[in-house]
Design a protein that fits this description.
This protein has eleven helices and eleven strands. The protein is α/β, with parallel strands linked by helices.
Length: 280
């Protein structure tokens, strides 16, 4: 939110006797009067990869200012909580964790999906450096797989052929099409070197889609035993993980679905509600 609008919101809420100001990003009012301040944090990507962003210096300055004035901080994973402690020295009892939720829209298909005609692996998300898309392309160039790679999100990509005969296809997808892609995929590949949470793998699991994920702490936290993990710099390890995912049984898919459905927005809201009570 731009500062003029934020200041207007703050003045209006102050006139109404606001007791808590919940900043969903790192811009906070110049004066809080007597209100308590709750700040949301989503990740520490600027801290982990400072050279990737032009605005790193300004973002880190703004974040430190917000955290120094906050009465409490809410973040979206235990992994992100540890990052806040590491980078900002925040006290553990100042931080609350509210995992993200998976929409009930992402669910198992009503009818069995046949995946034999044009098998594909799915990639969902941006292709920024830390997302590690390069290892996915390397896998397709070196593995000689004949499967297609469907890429959702990020700038458009030209269609190309892999050495094994499969294609790289970039598509735009609303939620309905994305759900269909999860349903039809042989697996989702999620190769990130860093995440604050990692929602696409949970959406995939909710739809019964096997997940191949980089072996990083936050994905272990979110996905538990319901993914095939690989070292995010090892293309041979990625190939082995893909092969394991291709062997998922219906029972394994159902277990992944049930795990994903434990992440609800109601549970996230409950954490915030308790935080509001404690700050009141």
């Amino acid at each position: 939110m731009e500062r003029p609008w934020m200041e207007r919101c703050w003045r209006a809420s102050h006139r109404g006797g606001c007791s808590i100001f919940h900043a969903t990003y790192y811009r906070i009012p110049r004066s809080l009067h007597d209100a308590r301040l709750l700040v949301c944090d989503y990740d520490c990507i600027h801290e982990r990869f400072p050279a990737m962003f032009r605005d790193t210096k300004e973002v880190l300055k703004r974040k430190r200012h917000a955290f120094n004035h906050a009465d409490a901080v809410v973040t979206i994973s235990e992994s992100s909580k540890q990052d806040l402690i590491e980078f900002y020295g925040l006290q553990e009892d100042k931080i609350r964790v509210a995992h993200l939720g998976v929409s009930s829209f992402f669910r198992l298909p009503e009818e069995k999906i046949e995946r034999g005609n044009s098998p594909y692996l799915l990639y969902v998300g941006s292709r920024a450096t830390y997302k590690n898309f390069a290892i996915v392309e390397r896998f397709f160039r070196e593995s000689m797989t004949d499967m297609d790679l469907i890429v959702v999100g990020g700038p458009s990509l030209e269609e190309c052929r892999w050495p094994g005969g499969g294609r790289r296809l970039w598509v735009r997808a609303d939620d309905e099409r994305l759900r269909s892609l999860y349903w039809g995929a042989c697996a989702l590949i999620y190769p990130s070197m860093y995440e604050g949470f990692g929602l696409p793998p949970l959406e995939a699991l909710a739809c019964g889609c096997p997940v191949v994920a980089s072996d990083i702490p936050v994905l272990r936290e979110v996905l538990g035993e319901h993914a095939e993990y690989f070292c995010c710099s090892d293309v041979d390890d990625l190939e082995a993980a893909v092969n394991r995912a291709l062997g998922w049984t219906e029972k394994r898919r159902l277990e992944g679905h049930n795990h994903a459905k434990t992440f609800t927005w109601e549970r996230s809201a409950s954490v915030l509600q308790n935080c509001y009570r404690q700050l009141s």
